[in-house]
Structure formats: C-alpha cells, structure tokens
Amino acid sequence: MTVTWSPQQQDDLRAAAIAWLSARTNDGLDALTSEQINEFTWGRERFRLMDAQRGIRKPRQFTSALSIRTTFRPAGAERPYEDDLGVDGLVRYKWRGDDPAHPENRSLRQAMHERVPLIWFWGVGVALYKPVFPVYLIAEEQREQQFVVATDGLQHLESTGSRVEEVMRRYLRQETYRRLHQPVFRSIVMRAYEASCAVCQLRHSVLLDAAHIVEDRHERGVASVRNGLALCKIHHAAYDAGILGLTPDLRVEVRADILDEIDGPLLEHGIKRLHDTPLMVVPRSRRERPDPELLEIHYERFRAS
C-alpha cells in the first residue's frame, strides 16, 4: 500500500528537483535528454521527474501533479495536444483527453488548488527536453479543456479592470516569452546546430546565443528553428548591428567599411576573414535550415546599411 507523503515532504522533493535541474541545465540554459532527466535521485533512489508515456506526471506518493510535458514537434508536424499563448500573455496546457474527471486532469486541478510549483518539460528534439521551472497553474478553462499556466512571480497577478490592463497583458506576454518561449527557442536552435556557432564553430554553450534571423517583433519573427541561428555572442552582436550579413544562399558578408578598417586581431581574424565564406555549421535536416525568405529580409536590411 502506497503511503501519501506529507505536504512538507512533497514540497521538499519539488524544491530538490528544481535545484537539481537548475544545476544540471547550467541554471536553465541547456536541454537534457530523457536519460539525463531520469538520473535524479531522492533518498538514494531514482525518482522519475517525467512520465515516459504520459504528458502529466503524478507520483503515487503525491496528492497532485509534479510535472507536465509537451512533445517535440519536427518542422511541419503536429503535436497530439497544442499548447498555446492566450491573449492575456499566459500559456495554456491542454487536458489529457476530454474527460475532466480523468485522474491526470484531476492531478493538475489539485496542483492548481494547492498552488504548488510544477516543472514543464518541453520537447526540443527526439528524447531531448528543455525543463522550464517553476510554473504554476492559475486557472482552468473547461470549455477549452485546458489550464492557464503562469511563470514564477506572476501566479498571483489578476485582472485590474482598469486602463492599466493592457500594460499588464504586455508585461505578462514579455515575461512568458522570456521564461518559456525564449529558452525553448534557444534549446531547439542549439540542438539543430549541435551547440556550435554557425559562423565560427565555437562550441562553448555559455558563449552561444540563439539569434533570430528577423527579430521577434517583426510580423514574421516567430520563435521557430527556421528563423534561428546559433551564434557566439560576438557574431550575434555583429549580426544584429549590421556588421555581418548572411545571404539567402548561406554565405557570410562583412560590411564594406569594416573591411577597410584597421584594428586589432579580433576584428581582423574574428570578423574580416569571414567575408564571402560559407556558414561553417548548418542543421543536418533541410527542414531546419534557415528560411531563405527570412534571410532575404535581413540581408536587404544589411545591404541598405
């Protein structure tokens, strides 16, 4: 017979799991494989943080869910459940099936009532997940068969009913992208480019960024791998500043005035020598390579500069 743990024991495990994931992911920077996630131990024994078959993990010792999972979707494919961002700037997580009384849906509802932190394992590759933590379930929309998810620090914000409502919505949307969508976008891009700078092949994760080909505020600036480039911080800054450009056929160009400039070895060897060279790293899958139309948008802007 399984004994339900006390609220304190459950809270302790949640806190330990989040601390462990923070350490294993370089403070939330990196993704983990399923095998790595399964290495978590509690009381010297393995303790599963993510369910291998189900999207919702409720340990038998718990009164509510511990984690949720979103499956990886290759470019052009559909997920069995589509989690989306609402007009309020908060993301939604779909029920399991359409039965509100399903045990997994009840476990999410209980987590919402208990206001406990959950871990969201977001698939960014085959058996590869970006853990997002902590997240909180703050409401349920039964007609749409989904829960409303907020990130840390936002779980108690409620509608003001005043003119500042739109300001709050923008803030919530920005925070959701910062804490959920941007880290997921980074992990997808890093996986596609094998954690290497596309321009110079640098492979130190902490020195790499997931750059947007066209910025996320652009009407086509979606957080998709085809709108992404893995760039080291120097080349990311150069790309955004219009010092480096990338042609639709994936060749690097350097702005003319920079080519004429005389400076130290970093400019000479780190920037100027790249002119008219192909990208050093491109995704193996053609479906994940940069979108030529998006490259054209940025390249025309680069040429105009």
TrEMBL record:
<keyword id="KW-0540">Nuclease</keyword>
<dbReference type="GO" id="GO:0004519">
    <property type="term" value="F:endonuclease activity"/>
</dbReference>
<feature type="domain" description="HNH nuclease">
    <location>
        <begin position="197"/>
        <end position="245"/>
    </location>
</feature>
<dbReference type="InterPro" id="IPR003615">
    <property type="entry name" value="HNH_nuc"/>
</dbReference>
<dbReference type="Pfam" id="PF13391">
    <property type="entry name" value="HNH_2"/>
</dbReference>
<keyword id="KW-0255">Endonuclease</keyword>
<keyword id="KW-0378">Hydrolase</keyword>
<protein>
    <submittedName>
        <fullName>HNH endonuclease</fullName>
    </submittedName>
</protein>
